[in-house]
Amino acid sequence: MQNLDIKNISRIIKLLKKEVKQFENPIATEIGEKTRSPFMVLVSCLLSLRTMDKVTGPVSKKLFEIADTPEKIAKMPLKKLQKIIKPVNFYITKSKRIKNISKTLIKEYGGKVPCDFNELVKFKGVGRKTANIVMTYGFFKKDYIAVDTHLHRIPNRLGWVKTKNPHKTEEELKKIVPKKYWQDLNDIFVAHGQNICVPISPFCSKCYINKYCPRIGVAKSR
Ligand code: SF4
Predict the structure, then answer these.
(1) How far is CA 72 from CA 75, 78, 82, 111, in A?
(2) Same domain, yes or no, for 77 and 159?
(3) How much of the chain exceeds pLDDT 90, in percent?
(4) Among 44, 152, 187, 210, whose Cα sits 20 to 30 Å from the Cα of 197?
């Protein structure tokens, strides 16, 4: 199948890299690049669940100006934490999770986020996606692919995978995408998925990779 040709996968990723330069970085990448702090990447990722980046970004910034370590968040009164993060969805549940994780990090991990995927998923509220994001954008590891809703939807649209859930997509992508691209994959597909290949009525005429997409068929080449 043409779309699974490895050269096409590389071409598509390169074209998407060009396309997404015009958009803002997804929040986890931005925080990872700016702070080099796995803890801040973890917290911003927890805040971002079911919340738009344009809301999560300012809330994360405000929180980290006051408390940017597990110790500071553990000491902060719960009500104060809730007041700061109130704009994000499910802020009450998220405030309790962030506080509990901070306390556990202090008690059991010497106040540091473990650089270990299997340890990360033991925390309540931390699933594969969040753990993969922390490994990729908090610790800058190259062996992980953080599959979120965009990185699940778009490879299915492109015909790269035929999967029913993000975990299966992660497994399949690891088989077909050259490893040198894994670290950037979430970034690129989140930006593309938020701005062009949106869930409903994607902007296919503006899409840099439309000639490779079965949804469009053969279109103008770039
Ligand atoms: S052509 Fe449309 S459906 Fe295909 S990847 Fe681009 S935006 Fe998404």
Answers:
(1) 5, 12, 14, 11
(2) no
(3) 86
(4) 44
Confidence of residue 217 (pLDDT cuts 50, 70, 90): low
Residue 20 sits in the same domain as residue 32: no
Pocket of ligand 1 contains residue 88 by CB under 6 Å: no
**In CATH, what number is assigned to the domain containing residue 185?**
1.10.1670.10
Tell whether ligand 1 has an atom less than 6 A from the beta carbon of residue 207.
yes
If asked whether residues 34 and 133 sit together in one domain, one would say yes
- Report whether 111 contacts 6 (CB < 8 A): no
Q: Is 86 exposed, middle or buried (0-12, 13-18, 19+ CB in 10 A)?
A: exposed
Is residue 157 within 6 Å of ligand 1 at its C-beta? yes
To the question of pTM greater than 0.85 for the whole model, the response is yes
> How many Å lie between the centroid of ligand 1 and the Cα of residue 59?
31
Confidence of residue 105 (pLDDT cuts 50, 70, 90): very high
pLDDT at 149 (0 to 100): 94
Consecutive H or E run containing 20 = helix 6-20
Ligand 1 centroid to residue 218 C-alpha, Å: 12
Measure 209 CA to ligand 1 centroid, in angstroms. Answer: 7
Ligand 1 center from residue 210 Cα (angstroms): 6
**CATH code of the domain in which 84 resides:** 1.10.340.30
Closest C-alpha residue for ligand 1 atom 8: 197
Q: 131 lies in which domain range?
A: 27-138
Task: Please count the structural domains in the chain.
Answer: 2
